[in-house]
């Protein structure tokens, strides 16, 4: 494996629970009773555009003007105050003997804020990709294929680290290896099972175990 592709939210930074809590609260204001756990099942890993389409279907009407901006403002404020990196991720990145990058369903400004707040931005300069750069978000393979092309590797030479079933499916469709990460505050035992069912070759709950998992994936991929 020549390239490791990291999802951002829930893999590099522990942001998913914050985002799910905010979305759940704002949807209740619109009369849609949905818990953070239910938001996780419905929306985790989707691009903002895809989330917006599904919200309109569930509500029966388009969210009111300003809804998205209100959610974004509250999210960014909480990320700036509360966001932490996933435990052990900096040490892994600083010692990983392979090229790596980030590929996220989030918009570029959210990815940039998350990496800046957690101090990880310098490790990814020039190697940050967003679903806003492709036509179809996860579970389509578009983003991962785009990343492989930009990074100059064949899809089969890349391995993806993902925390969402949709991301796992996207990586598989791109012809890449995929490791599921269930170590964020939003994950539980049932979530790990969902990642496995989606096609993750291995499930990790501690980032410190990633280098060994990548080596196992490389060995199994060798002819």
Structure commentary:
This protein has helices at residues 16-29, 36-43, 48-59, 67-82, 89-95, 108-117, 142-151, 165-173, 189-198, 210-221, and strands at residues 3-6, 99-104, 128-130, 158-162, 177-181, 202-204. With 223 residues, the protein is of the alpha/beta class. It folds into two domains: 3-14 and 84-221, HAD superfamily/HAD-like (Rossmann fold), CATH 3.40.50.1000; 16-82, DNA polymerase, domain 1. The chain has a six-stranded parallel sheet with strand order 3-2-1-4-5-6, with helices on both faces. The radius of gyration is 17 Å and the shape is globular.
CATH fold type of the largest domain:
Rossmann fold
- Lateral strand order in the biggest sheet: 3-2-1-4-5-6
CATH class of the largest domain: Alpha Beta
Secondary-structure element sequence? EHHHHHEHEHEHEHEH
The total of beta strands comes to 6
| Biggest pleated-sheet summary | 6 strands, parallel
- Main structural class: alpha/beta
Q: Please state roughly what percent of the residues sit in beta strands, choosing from under 5%, 5-15%, 15-25%, 25-35%, 35-45% or over 45%.
A: 5-15%
So what's the overall shape?
A: globular
Mean pLDDT: 92
CATH architecture of the largest domain: 3-Layer(aba) Sandwich
Q: So, the CATH homologous superfamily of the largest domain?
A: HAD superfamily/HAD-like
Q: Unreliable segments (pLDDT under 50, ≥5 consecutive)?
A: none
Determine the number of helices (DSSP H or I, runs of at least 4 residues): 10
Q: How many separate domains make up the residues?
A: 2
